[in-house]
Design goal:
- This protein has 506 residues and is α+β, with helices and mostly antiparallel strands.
- The chain has a single domain, classed as FAD/NAD(P)-binding domain, CATH 3.50.50.
- The protein contains 13 helices and 26 strands.
- 27% of the residues lie in helices and 21% in strands.
C-alpha cells in the first residue's frame, strides 16, 4: 500500500510552514502539510491592523486558560492562530531573535548562539524584516529615551527604545506561509491541505506511521511525522496519541505508547501589565474629530499602503533594566499608539496610547493537561502566572520605571495623562494589586515539550523521546522563553528541524 506522503507535517504555522518547505527543498521525498484551519487568503490577514478583528474570530483557536490563582481567579484568552501561517497570521509581526545568551542558557547541546545564528540569517534572508516606516509621532519620540540608538531598532541585548522591526512587505503581512510555503509549493513536491484537524498519531509498536484526522481519515507517512501544532496543540496531540504522563493518560482511557512524564509541563509565557494614557490629540482613537480619518483609512491603505490600517498596533517599545543587577534588560515594553479601553470593551471613545511591561525571563511555570480523550474538548491550560512572586516584583519595578520613562519621552503636543490605573495608584501594594487585577500575557506560550537530555520529552535533534519517526518543531520545544517576541525563534526552530530530519533519515 502506497503511503500518502513520505513526511507529514502537522500544523502550518511559523515553524510548520518552514519545516515543510525546507524538507521539500532538501528533496527528502513527498511532503504533506496539514492545517486545521482555513487559508490565510483574507484581506484582514494581510492588512496589519486586521489582527484587531482576527483575534477571537474563527481563525483563532480561542483557547481559555484555567482560572489563575496569581490573578485572583481570572481566566485569560490564549490566542493561537488557526489558519495557514498559524499564530504568525494573527500577531503583530514584531521581529526579535532574542538575546544571544537566551540560547546559551537553554543548556542544550547544539543550540548555543553560534549554532542558531546561521538559521536566523537564512530565515531573515527570505523574510527580510525591517523597521516600520510611517509610525505615529509618539513612537518616533521613543527613540531618544536612552540615546545612541535613535536610528536603530531596539534590542534586548541592552537598554534601547524606538520603532520595532516587522516581517512585513509593502505594509502587508509577510508570514512563513508567504516566504517559505508558497514558493516551495510551486517548486517542489509539497502538498498543503487546509481544514484537516488532527486527532492523534497512530503507532505500530513505537514507530509513528499515520495521522488520524477528526473525521476519521487516516493519512500515512513512509518516513515520519512532524508535529508543528504549537505549545498547546502539539502536546495535546501527543498525549491523545499515548505519549505523555502514563497515569494521566490511563485516567482518560488512553492506551499508553510511551510514558513521558514531562509532556505538557513547563508551560510559560511572558507575563505583562500596562498603563493607559488618554487625552485629546494624543494617539489614535474614536473621537468625533478622528472619524473622517477612520472612514478614509481603508481607502488610504488600499491605494497607498499607508495610514492607520498599515499599523500592526504595536509599533515600537523599549527594553530596559527594572531590577536586574547586571544592568541587562529584564523588561520589554510594547507601545501601542491607540486608545485601548481598560474597562473590557474592544472599542471605546477617546484618544490615547498604551504601554506595557513584560518580564523577559519569567520564573513561573504552569502545565497543560487533557480534560478528555475527545479532541473536540479543549485542554486544561494552566499558565501558572505569578506562581513565583519574583515575576510580580519584576513587573512592579518595571511599571515604576515605565512611568518615569513615559514622563521623560519627548511626546510634545501628543502627551496624555495616565488614566489607568492612574498616578494615585503608586504604592507597591497598590501596584501589585493592579498587576493581579489586570495582568495578562504577551501571547508567547512555550515550553510544553522542552528539548534536552534525560527526561526531556524531545531530544536535542527534535525527535520525540521513546518513539521513532516522530519529531516536534515549534515553540513548545523551548526550555525557556526568549527575552522578546517568539515568532522569529519559532521560525529558526522550524528551519533547524528540517536540517536535522533530513540528515537523520538520509
Amino acid at each position: 500500500m502506497t503511503a500518502d506522503a513520505d513526511f507529514i507535517v502537522v500544523g502550518a504555522g511559523s515553524a510548520g510552514c518552514i519545516v515543510a518547505a525546507e524538507l521539500a527543498r532538501r528533496d527528502v521525498g513527498r511532503i504533506l502539510l496539514l492545517e486545521a484551519g482555513p487559508s490565510d487568503n483574507h484581506p484582514l490577514v494581510k492588512m496589519p491592523f486586521g489582527l484587531a478583528w482576527l483575534m477571537g474570530s474563527k481563525r483563532d483557536w480561542r483557547f481559555k486558560s484555567d482560572p489563575q490563582k496569581g490573578l485572583g481567579g481570572r481566566q485569560l484568552n490564549v490566542h493561537r492562530g488557526r489558519m495557514l501561517g498559524g499564530s504568525g497570521s494573527i500577531n503583530s509581526m514584531v521581529w526579535f531573535r532574542g538575546r544571544c545568551d537566551d540560547f546559551d542558557g537553554w543548556n542544550v547541546k547544539g543550540w548555543e548562539w553560534p549554532d542558531v545564528e546561521p538559521a536566523f540569517e537564512a530565515v531573515e534572508a527570505k523574510l527580510q524584516p525591517k523597521q516600520m516606516t510611517g509610525v505615529h509621532p509618539l513612537v518616533q519620540a521613543l527613540s531618544d529615551l536612552f540615546g545612541g540608538n535613535a536610528n536603530e531598532a531596539p534590542t534586548p541585548e541592552y537598554e534601547s527604545a524606538g520603532t520595532f522591526r516587522f516581517n512585513m512587505r509593502n505594509a502587508r503581512r509577510w508570514s512563513a506561509a508567504d516566504a517559505f510555503m508558497r514558493p516551495a509549493q510551486a517548486a517542489y513536491d509539497l502538498k498543503v491541505r487546509t481544514g484537516s484537524e488532527v486527532d492523534r498519531i497512530e503507532f505500530e509498536g513505537d514507530q509513528a506511521k499515520r495521522v488520524i484526522l477528526l473525521d476519521g481519515t487516516k493519512l500515512s507517512a513512509s518516513k515520519g511525522i512532524v508535529l508543528s501544532a504549537g505549545s498547546i496543540g502539539s502536546p495535546a496531540i501527543l498525549m491523545r496519541s499515548g505519549v505523555g504522563p502514563a497515569e494521566h493518560l490511563q485516567e482518560l482511557g488512553i492506551t499508553v505508547t510511551h510514558n513521558s512524564e514531562e509532556v505538557g509541563d513547563n508551560l510559560h509565557d511572558h507575563p505583562a501589565a500596562g498603563l493607559h494614557f488618554a487625552g485629546p490629540r494624543s494617539g489614535y482613537g474614536l473621537t468625533l474629530s478622528q472619524m473622517p480619518a477612520w472612514m478614509l483609512a481603508p481607502f488610504r491603505y488600499l491605494f497607498t499602503r499607508k495610514g492607520r490600517f498599515a499599523s500592526p498596533t504595536v509599533e515600537g517599545g523599549a527594553f530596559f533594566n527594572a531590577r536586574c543587577d547586571t544592568g541587562e534588560p529584564d523588561v520589554q515594553c510594547h507601545f501601542i499608539p491607540f486608545m485601548l479601553d481598560w474597562k473590557g470593551s474592544r472599542f471605546t471613545h477617546g484618544s490615547g496610547y498604551f504601554a506595557d511591561v513584560c518580564a523577559c525571563r519569567p520564573k513561573s511555570r504552569g502545565r497543560l493537561r487533557l480534560t478528555s480523550a475527545d479532541p473536540n474538548v479543549a485542554p486544561d491550560i494552566d499558565l501558572g502566572l505569578f506562581q513565583d512572586p519574583d515575576d510580580v516584583e519584576t513587573l512592579l519595578a518595571g511599571l515604576k520605571r515605565l512611568r518615569e520613562l513615559m514622563s521623560k519621552a519627548a511626546f510634545g503636543k501628543h502627551r496624555a495623562p495616565e488614566v489607568y490605573p492612574g498616578p494615585e495608584v503608586s504604592s507597591d501594594e497598590a501596584l501589585r494589586q493592579h498587576i493581579k487585577d489586570r495582568g495578562a500575557t504577551a501571547y508567547h506560550p512555550v515550553g510544553t515539550l522542552r528539548m534536552g537530555e534525560g527526561t526531556a520529552p524531545v531530544t536535542p535533534r527534535l525527535a520525540v523521546a521513546g518513539v521513532t519517526d516522530l519529531w516536534v518543531a515549534d515553540a513548545s520545544v523551548m526550555p525557556s522563553v526568549t527575552s522578546a517576541n517568539t515568532n522569529a525563534p519559532s521560525m529558526m526552530i522550524g528551519y533547524r528541524a528540517a536540517k536535522f530530519i533530513s540528515e537523520d533519515t538520509a
